[in-house]
Request: fold
Amino acid sequence: MPRPIRALVSRAAISHNLSIARTHAPSAKVWAVVKANAYGHGIERVLPALSAADGIALLDLSEAQRVRACACQLPILLLEGFFEPSDLAIVDELQLTPAIHCWQQVQWLERAQLRHPLDVYLKINTGMNRLGFAVHEAKAAYQRLRSVARVRDITCMTHFANADGIDGTQQAIATFRSGVDGLPGARSLSNSAAVLLHPDAQSDWIRPGIMLYGASPSERQTARSFGLVPAMTLASEVIAVQDIAAGQGVGYGGRFKAPRPMRIGVVACGYADGYPRIAADGCPVLVGGIVAPLAGRVSMDMLTVDITHIEHAAIGTPVELWGEHVSVDEVAASANTSGYELLCALAARVPVIEVA
Ligand SMILES: *Cc1c(COP(=O)(O)O)cnc(C)c1O
Reply:
């Protein structure tokens, strides 16, 4: 028998979350972002739930190939474009839509022999200072792309550095407009945080990612408050129970010391499954439907929880590490990280099961 740990992925939740994105931007088209193997959920698994999207956005050419292998004919946006000239043959063959963020990419494009018309996204840097042309270069970059014979539609895009923070998007939107005003074509601005928190940022194409999977893009607002439903449940079982005396330690280094006699449940889930090793004592874990606080350092294959108050807990009792009752964002907060990181880090050894 395999260990009892498994991840359950709900396509219905993903379709529902996509509809929430549409509610916030009724007139926009939607790029459903599936980079990083659909934020850990599995590209092939989530595609059927995204059939109502207008396009699929990702980074990796191999992920684009996987999408096309599923017979998905939607447009595919390459969020970082291509990485070397030879990539352009695949871009052409699979008819992908690359983001163009630097002059080197423009030059590679000018020298490429393309067989099909190519739509491109012109990426403008509005303060993230990661990828994109400076605002003062936008018009020149546009003109050079315009004069590449095979280039068809040019959409201007930017990516917000602070859509989830107090600084917001206003400054970035003003910067973007100052660079691209007057240029023809569509615009694409919003990630999940902007879709949910900054309706003023509306554009022709939105690019929601994390919200599709039912986690929050904001530390200050829960996914539930946006009406999102978690797409992934990480589930396991209790595999051992220990009765310990006051003063005894639990796990490596004895980080947790029992303040009184306690029952400790041992759960088949560790950092080699993607559970964060640095999750703090007290991090919520659902055992038999009741919240049990994490007690002791997470180890590679197991973690330990205080189940003193859960009388019915025993070997085989079901455990939810994250999902409907304990949000991945709560676990992330206990580990000083974000739900994004935990979802993407689900380990390959965890079997994934599709649920309705
Ligand atoms: C990842 C990404 C998104 C989606 O971001 P979320 O915060 O997950 O919604 C949108 N646009 C770009 C350019 C990205 O890289």
Summary: The domain at 11-214 is CATH 3.20.20.10 (TIM Barrel). Residues 273 and 347 are 5 Å apart (CA to CA).
